[in-house]
């Protein structure tokens, strides 16, 4: 196996909104498949009681190849005829990598889902955090890079008197 | 009439918000301002009215002040420039500093259409993003005062959708009698979430629009109108990230 460069993502699939199957609100058993490339995917459990507004709140840890430009989220629904894709969102990696925020920033993102005809079909809400970059190799030797800049907001006390102003 | 901090204090002291803990929002707000208007008396009034409310939330009272829709001496129209005319520093001190920067801009820059919000919002998002890198833990409020009719609706939506992931709220004050229909769309009070051209959807509403004419007719107090949604937007941000308030050390003083 060739050594590859990848990022580890923590994707929390939070919830879905207004999901429909043939225009009727889905009743139950929606789940989400996250694909980082055609061969790698992770899926959430089924939501059993949220109907067309399912809540999953499930954290999936996925490896994202450095060259990847998109990840795909598919909301599917288990029916008596098998698993049916309700809607898909194609998420640009640039939505949570790059920019001015620290790399480990917790992003809250929402996406429009589209069915196989390209019609709008609900929204999916997720959060994404890029974990410390890791040089994956055959031996899985991890170069633990300590986080210096990217101290997560959630671990910090908010407020306080230290306001140093906006860096220009 | 209650001043801004007092009204905020009332919200903050609501025990349900933070499990009974109080904390002082005045230390965390950073204010950015952006204006475009030829009607200086209306802008003056809006700056004074809004400024006197909002200045208390910025602990150092140094506000980045930006202009947009201005034609500079070389003839190009800029949609995001430093209001004080400085090439590097965009901060001004206090409401007086804002007024001075605005009057100097009126002399040095010919205000011109079209009215584009996108660049100013992206600049505010950049400032808020960089603040996170510096661990400033500061929540930002971009105040846009304008009499123009928005012409870059989709670009503005794209910028707002991206910014909805940041510690940023945007207050838009519309002055004059213009058509502000599109501002109402941005405010998203009808429950429709803003959607970008790439299919990304705003995680929550970060915009509050207030037409100054409604303030004039006495239907609403400007303070009330401006701060109405701000606290909810702030709470949505910190709750989503499980940020815990720090206990209040300094006794709140009346402003």
Main traits of this protein?
heterodimer; A: 168 residues; mainly beta; 4-stranded antiparallel β-sheet; 0% helix; disordered C terminus; B: 255 residues; alpha/beta; 7-stranded mixed β-sheet; 9 helices; 37% helix
Walk me through the structure:
The complex is a heterodimer of chains A (168) and B (255). Chain A has 168 residues and is an all-beta fold. Chain A has strands at residues 6-17, 20-21, 24-25, 30-37, 40-43, 55-65, 70-79, 82-92, 107-114, 120-130, 157-158. A four-stranded antiparallel beta sheet of chain A has the order 6-1-10-9, with no helix packed on it. A four-stranded antiparallel beta sheet of chain A has the order 5-4-7-8, with no helix packed on it. In chain A, strands 2-3 form a two-stranded antiparallel ribbon. Chain A is elongated and about 40 Å long. Chain A starts with 5 loop residues before the first strand and ends in a 10-residue tail after the last strand. Mean pLDDT of chain A is 79; it is low at 136-168. In chain B, helix 5 links the parallel strand 8 and strand 9. In chain B, strands 1, 2, 5, 6, 8, 9 and 11 form a seven-stranded mixed beta sheet that branches. Chain B is α/β, with parallel strands linked by helices and 255 residues long. Chain B contains nine helices and twelve strands. Chain A binds chain B through residues 89-90, 92, 95, 99-102, 105-112, 114, 123, 125, 127, 149-154, 156-168, and chain B through 23-25, 27-28, 30, 59-60, 62, 64, 88-91, 126-127, 129-138, 165-167, 193, 195, 198-203, 238, 240-246, 249-250.
């Amino acid at each position: 196996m060739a050594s590859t460069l990848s990022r580890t993502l923590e994707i929390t699939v939070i919830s879905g909104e207004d999901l429909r199957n043939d225009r009727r609100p889905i009743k139950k058993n929606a789940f989400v498949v996250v694909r980082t490339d055609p061969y790698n995917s992770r899926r959430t459990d089924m939501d059993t009681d949220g109907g067309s507004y399912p809540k999953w709140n499930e954290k999936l840890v996925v490896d994202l190849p450095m060259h990847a430009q998109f990840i795909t989220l598919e909301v599917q629904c288990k029916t008596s005829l098998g698993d049916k894709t309700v809607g898909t969102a194609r998420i640009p990696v640039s939505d949570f990598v790059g920019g001015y925020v620290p790399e480990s920033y917790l992003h809250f993102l929402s996406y429009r889902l589209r069915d196989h005809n390209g019609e709008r079909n609900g929204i999916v809400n997720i959060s994404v955090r890029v974990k410390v970059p890791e040089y994956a190799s055959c031996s899985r030797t991890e170069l633990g890079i300590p986080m210096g800049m990217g101290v997560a907001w959630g671990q910090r006390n908010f407020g306080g008197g230290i306001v140093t102003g906006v860096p220009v | 009439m209650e001043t801004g901090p007092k009204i905020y204090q009332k919200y903050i002291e609501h025990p349900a918000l933070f499990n009974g803990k109080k904390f002082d929002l005045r230390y965390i707000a950073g204010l950015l301002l952006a204006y475009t208007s030829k009607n200086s008396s209306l802008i003056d009034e809006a700056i004074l009215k809004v400024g006197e409310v909002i200045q208390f939330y910025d602990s150092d009272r140094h506000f980045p002040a930006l202009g947009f829709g201005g034609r500079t001496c070389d003839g190009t129209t800029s949609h995001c420039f430093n209001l004080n005319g400085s090439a590097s520093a965009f901060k001004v001190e206090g409401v007086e500093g804002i007024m001075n920067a605005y009057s100097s801009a009126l002399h040095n820059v010919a205000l011109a259409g079209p009215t584009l919000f996108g660049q100013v919002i992206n600049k505010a998002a950049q400032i808020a993003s960089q603040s996170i890198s510096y661990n400033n833990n500061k929540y930002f409020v971009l105040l846009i005062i304008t009499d123009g009719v928005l012409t870059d609706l989709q670009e503005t939506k794209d910028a707002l959708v991206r910014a909805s992931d940041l510690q940023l709220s945007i207050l838009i004050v519309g002055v004059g009698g213009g058509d502000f229909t599109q501002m109402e769309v941005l405010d998203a009070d009808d429950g429709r979430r803003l959607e970008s051209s790439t299919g990304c959807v705003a995680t929550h509403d970060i915009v509050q629009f207030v037409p100054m004419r409604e303030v004039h007719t006495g239907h609403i107090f400007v303070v009330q109108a401006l701060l109405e949604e701000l606290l909810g937007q702030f709470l949505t941000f910190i709750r989503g990230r499980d940020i815990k308030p720090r206990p209040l050390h300094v006794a709140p003083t009346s402003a």
